[in-house]
Write a structure and sequence with these properties.
Blueprint: H1 3-21, H2 26-33, H3 42-61, H4 82-98, H5 102-108, H6 114-130
Length: 136
C-alpha cells in the first residue's frame, strides 16, 4: 500500500469521524466553549476518544520505525515562546468565533454554503499570510 493511499484512507477516516461525532456542526463546538450558558460536553468525549488510543499508539510505536516512511517527523523545537503562544491564541479565537478548525472546516466543505466557503477561504488566506507576518 502506498503512502499516498494510506494518507487518503487516514484522512477519509478522520473526516467520517468528524461527521459522525457532529464536530462539523459549528453550534456543537461553540456549545462546548459556552461554559456559562448552554454548555455541551460532547467535544470532551470526542477528544477523549481520540487522545486515549493515540496515547496507546505513541507508547507502542515509541522505538519503532514507521511502515510507510523512513522515520517519524517530530518537531525539533520544544520551547514555549511568543510565536507559539500568539498562534495558539489566534487559533483558539478563530475556533471559538467560527466553531471550526481546519479539519472540520475541510469536512464541512461537503455541505457547501457561503458561510463555510467564506471560512475556508479566510483560513487559507490566514495560512498564506502567517509566514510573512510571523513574529520575531
Amino acid at each position: 500500500m502506498s503512502r499516498l493511499l494510506v494518507s487518503f484512507i487516514s484522512g477519509l477516516l478522520f473526516g467520517v469521524g468528524l461527521l459522525i461525532s457532529g464536530m462539523t456542526d459549528t453550534a456543537k463546538v461553540q456549545g462546548w466553549l459556552d461554559i456559562l450558558g448552554q454548555w455541551d460536553p460532547t467535544l470532551a468525549f470526542v477528544m477523549g476518544g481520540a487522545i486515549m488510543p493515540m496515547a496507546a499508539a505513541w507508547a507502542i510505536t515509541a522505538k519503532k520505525a514507521p511502515l510507510f516512511d523512513l522515520n517519524f517527523s517530530m518537531p525539533s523545537r520544544k520551547a514555549i515562546d511568543k510565536k507559539l503562544l500568539a498562534g495558539s491564541i489566534l487559533f483558539g479565537m478563530g475556533w471559538a468565533l467560527a466553531g471550526l478548525c481546519p479539519g472540520p472546516a475541510i469536512a464541512a466543505l461537503g455541505f457547501g454554503g457561503t458561510g463555510i466557503i467564506l471560512f475556508f477561504v479566510s483560513m487559507i488566506v490566514g495560512m498564506l499570510l502567517s509566514k510573512p507576518l510571523r513574529l520575531g
